[in-house]
């Protein structure tokens, strides 16, 4: 990166955006803020990125040299199923506006955020970066998944036609402070943290949908943030990079529940409602490409990351998204 950089983070108020801000403000020079860097964290209050004029005005105001592009319409399973078209259009518009202006304003590098749901529903494991376009994504959120896949297509096109350095990363399931802890419309970890908290405070049973057997790779938002910053500074390719813990660190939903109960620091009984569906048994992704390029990176142990998240949840319960 050159000595004077303006780094604009879209989606700066979200789970991942807040983690990038935390890392920039609280860690050493390797991941933290460097001399000559100005970091700008955008929220939707700065402008609606589905709107071309509002997006252009943001670029005119800040003149970014680098962008971490996180802003997206993100939702749970039911939200996606009910409005696949809205997820497709909003995200397509946001991504097109960001990348088009990035090219027009001569932005030196953009790192956009995809998601593992871009991968084909029917696939072999472990999933790797070469498999994105090899078959249709899962039906439940095809709108969101296709809009994310198109970022990879646009990155390739901007590079081929204009020589732009626009790339993308693919995180697995993210969790951490500032997550959305809504009981229905949230991801698995924040949803379970909130449910266990309510079960304890209302002295009602803590019931978890499914068998607890499915396996997932979870990445702590602050680890992901460090990897985003590393990608912005060091990753040279246009093609995407999976940002994930190793395959051996996949955990079962039962392990997640046990860790939450431990982090909550109270005795609580729970049971699985095995009449409810489990979802996909696993979605194992390979982090080989990442570890080949960044072999020294150390992931926060799952229990430590969960502990920090639960502590943050309890301290901020009144004001969190829920
Ligand atoms: P959040 O829902 O926590 O945050 C979304 C962010 O996008 C907020 O800052 C929001 O602003 C902003 N935003 C949404 N719509 C608009 C809009 N129309 N105009 C301007 N800003 C907008 O998301 P996450 O932090 O969880 O996700 C960040 C990225 O990571 C996304 O691209 C997501 O697809 C991806 N991802 C997330 C995973 C996860 O497990 N959470 C897993 C894999 C990928 P405001 O707060 O003002 O509304």
Automatic annotation (TrEMBL):
<dbReference type="InterPro" id="IPR036291">
    <property type="entry name" value="NAD(P)-bd_dom_sf"/>
</dbReference>
<dbReference type="InterPro" id="IPR028614">
    <property type="entry name" value="GDP_fucose/colitose_synth"/>
</dbReference>
<dbReference type="GO" id="GO:0016853">
    <property type="term" value="F:isomerase activity"/>
</dbReference>
<feature type="domain" description="NAD-dependent epimerase/dehydratase">
    <location>
        <begin position="7"/>
        <end position="238"/>
    </location>
</feature>
<dbReference type="GO" id="GO:0050577">
    <property type="term" value="F:GDP-L-fucose synthase activity"/>
</dbReference>
<dbReference type="InterPro" id="IPR001509">
    <property type="entry name" value="Epimerase_deHydtase"/>
</dbReference>
<keyword id="KW-0413">Isomerase</keyword>
<protein>
    <recommendedName>
        <fullName>GDP-L-fucose synthase</fullName>
        <ecNumber>1.1.1.271</ecNumber>
    </recommendedName>
</protein>
<keyword id="KW-0521">NADP</keyword>
<comment type="similarity">
    <text>Belongs to the NAD(P)-dependent epimerase/dehydratase family. Fucose synthase subfamily.</text>
</comment>
<dbReference type="Pfam" id="PF01370">
    <property type="entry name" value="Epimerase"/>
</dbReference>
<keyword id="KW-0560">Oxidoreductase</keyword>
<comment type="pathway">
    <text>Nucleotide-sugar biosynthesis; GDP-L-fucose biosynthesis via de novo pathway; GDP-L-fucose from GDP-alpha-D-mannose: step 2/2.</text>
</comment>
